[in-house]
Amino acid sequence: MTSMLFLANTPVPRDLTLPLPLPEGLLKTLLVIFFLIHILFVNLTVGGSLLVAIFEFLGFKNKKYDALALELAKTVTVNKSLAVVMGIGPLLCINLVYTVQWYGANALTGHAWLLIIPLIITAFLLAYLHKYTWHHWETGIAKRFHWGLVLTSTLLFLAIPFVFLANVNLMHFPSEWEKVKGFFSSLKVGNVFPRYFHFLLASVALTGLAGAGWFWRRIVVDHLDNGMSREELRRLFYQIAALATGLQFIAGPLLLFTLPAVGVTPLLYKIILPSAALGLVLFIVLLKKAKGPDENLGYGYIRLCVFFSVVVLGMGSGRHAYREASLATHQQQVRERTADYQNALTAWNEANPPSEEAEETPEQLFATCAACHAPDSKLVGPPLREIAAIYAGNPDGIVTWAMAPGKKRPDFPPMPPFSHLGPDKLRVIAEYILATAPK
Amino acid sequence: MDFPPYYLDHIAGGRLIIGLIACLHVLINHPLAVGAYPLLTFMEWWAHKHNRPDIDRLAYRITFVVFIVTTSVGALTGVGIWLSTSLFAPFGIGSLLRIFFLGWFAEWLVFISEVVLIMWWFLSWKKADTPEKKRKHIKIGLALSIMSWLTMALIVAVLGFMMNTGDWSQSRAFLDAMTAPLYLPQLGFRTAFAFMTGAVFLWFCTYFFTKKDAAARAWMVERLSHVVLSSMMVLTFFGIWYWFRIPEAMRANQSVALLSMAFVQWKDKFAMLLGWTVGAFLLIAIGGLTVPRLIPRWALLIPTFMGIWLLGHFERAREFMRKPWVIAEYLYSNGVRKDEVRFLQSEGMLAHATYVKHHTVTPENHIEAGKDVFMISCSRCHSTTGINSVLDKFTRMYGPGEWNAGGMVSFLGTMHKTSTFMPPFPGNLAEKEALVSYILDLRKTREPLSGAQATGIRLSDTTSASSKP
């Protein structure tokens, strides 16, 4: 048989051999859908938190922004919980479909990966503290401190995605793994930073779009009661969405052109370019709405959301196409390696059936004891010579002791029980000891 | 295991980290979610029925605490168990996800509904200002209570399955795992525990929120005492059932040391802790019913800590009993499958490993190769010089003097028979000798060993995947 050689710097490990619980294609489809649902709430959390920090800051000068910030902060604490709970589905799927690559990336960024938990908990608790102290810390230095809370939680919300992006990015490039020495060096692989800016702008754009819907509801506007009209609010959030979407035409190409070539395929362009074109339409419509008369603000919102969803679906599918293409070779190698190993294992196990335990000779049985008991010297336990002297003519004494031993000698560690061998085998061993021990 | 080894030199297998996260999660989930939600829902219902706004207000205030803690620390420690396990034992969690996908998927859906319901319930509490809306609001609390119990019921199935695979090893069927012998007593025990500790948690909160409201406090203390008493009896029942079921469950698993000393100690300690905990709760409940005014706030901490201790000990059973398996009779705790052991003992583990510097042991590389052997086959449970270190283990056997290399090699060959919680050594003679060389060298140098997360992966220069059988 041939010995397969692969590039020295690309690890091709063996995969788990248990079958996937669902067809692979279905799991990948679910991965994309679940991920997009998850990232929707992540975007709303990150973008929302950022806007709260900005609005509350503007609120120092103009109170109407302060009220707006509070209303938005109330949505952040809900969205952040949904972001976490909706993150489990894609994690389930990615664990199953890309086991080798995903766990590999996790281990390589291990400390950061584990730190996610305390970081998110801190960010969440700060967000709660911020929200529920709003009317308690309203003036002077207390208000500054209060703003410091949202600034801190926002910075955390901005930092945490780096860990996820580093993992999602690193899993694409097993050939680079040998260079990675910890989380920070993993940021040098692939194109984490362009991915990050793309994500950040998407967060702001989506929060803008969501805000344009949320603050159009009369019940919210009445409750807000800060002098801003529905139209004014919707225009503001359309402006935010338009600005972020416009900037995506810098971040998007940057992301695309910095992608390592390994996964760039015509299919990727076929998915990304129409989505980007649709994004351009979206941008123009948002801009028109933001600049146009108030009458235009009242309609077309649902259509914008549909547009936006299609663009997001396109971008999500594009990412998946890139992942598939970049990992195609590695996946194939892993499959072959796993199959080769399994075949060799099966062949070996068939050629070497386990010997019946009943056929074990006294000598083989004694091997268990030999690790601690030598014929004439103290190893872990006393030498056989002493044992044979104590139990001369009394093999059953050895059996009784070995079934449930204790600690007899102060200078020896206690002997573990051997009841799992059963009295019959122990009796064979005892007779063997008495027969072979030096006298 | 054939994954880049995440490894913390002084903590080793991560049992400590996974354990801490998991215990924190359980200690929030059981009292504050499974136990508290139904009790708070009952308070809301009773207050509505008897027109007692003070009780409703108290329920709302306690729910606020519950809401904050469960949706931050509670939810994230749940995810944390997963993230930490995927670092320390990717082979284990990866295999379990494949076997238990439907269970986990269902648990996810229930968890989503739980999170949505707690937010809906808490955030809409004050908006429920008419009897009609209030009735609907109480139903949200009821749904939440059911869902949070259901998440626990599903996840306990996974845990029970890990301890005892039931018929899974033959049929690979999902439902078999749910009917594993320890499932029902464990679920009952946890449910009763949740109510008992949940009641004490509510009681504790009540003392903070009713400083000027003696009527509400008296109302609470009396009812919570009843809850503690009744759930305590249920807990005792399920605790004893569980205690008696363990040997039966273990018997199905021949390789686990049935009479291992540690297990006997565990079992005795469990019985003792169960007794003391029940006693502490009993005392508090009786005090609550007879002399409620005399119970100081701090007294409530005693049964709480006893309960935490008992549950911590209870959770350790799982860790203890599953050894040397991650999945009984299928996967060992070092990531080696049962069907691979003899093959690897004949062929060598290094020949088939990916993240190693050397694929064969030579006189020149034996210490370095031994380090790889340690990382692959020992490092999921043992550290070099820290917690549960290999040096400590051998010192306990061979003492502080000279160690006999031949004896150590011989021990590695039979350690799974003498210490039945150990997996068999999954390599050949040269690898045993290399490992011993490394350990003896480590004893001299005490050189720290770092994992893939710090110094990266180690690959062979001429990596040849031994597809050559």
Task: Write a structural description.
The complex is a heterodimer of chains A (439) and B (469). In chain A, 72% of the residues lie in helices and 0% in strands. Chain A has 439 residues and is an all-alpha fold. In chain A, helix 3 crosses helix 5 and helix 5 crosses helix 7 (192-214). Chain A is elongated. By secondary structure, chain B is mainly alpha-helical. Chain B folds into 2 domains: 15-332, Formate dehydrogenase/DMSO reductase fold (Up-down Bundle); 338-455, Cytochrome Bc1 Complex, Chain D, domain 2 (Orthogonal Bundle). In chain B, 70% of the residues lie in helices and 1% in strands. Chain B contains 17 helices and 3 strands. In chain B, strands 1-2 form a two-stranded antiparallel ribbon. In chain B, helix 10 packs antiparallel against helix 11 (301-322). Mean pLDDT of chain B is 86; it is low at 253-259 and 463-469. At the A-B interface, strand 1, helix 2, helix 3, helix 4 and helix 11 of A face helix 2, helix 3, helix 4, helix 12 and helix 14 of B.
CATH class of the largest domain in chain B: Mainly Alpha
Number of DSSP strand runs of chain A? 1
The whole-number mean of residue pLDDT values of chain B reads 86
Question: What is the count of distinct domains of chain A?
Answer: 2
Q: Biggest interface pair, residues each? A: A-B, 87 and 89 residues
Assembly state: heterodimer
Order of helices and strands of chain B: HHHHHHHHHHHEEHHHHHHE
The separation of the N and C termini of chain B measures: 19 Å
Task: Give the amount of beta strand of chain A, in percent.
Answer: under 5%
In this structure, how is the largest beta sheet of chain A organized? none
Count of distinct structural domains of chain B: 2
| Radius of gyration of chain B over all CA atoms, rounded | 26 Å
For the structure shown, list the relevant keywords:
heterodimer, A: 439 residues, mainly alpha, Cytochrome Bc1 Complex, Chain D, domain 2, 2 domains, 15 helices, B: 469 residues, Formate dehydrogenase/DMSO reductase fold, 3 strands, 70% helix, elongated
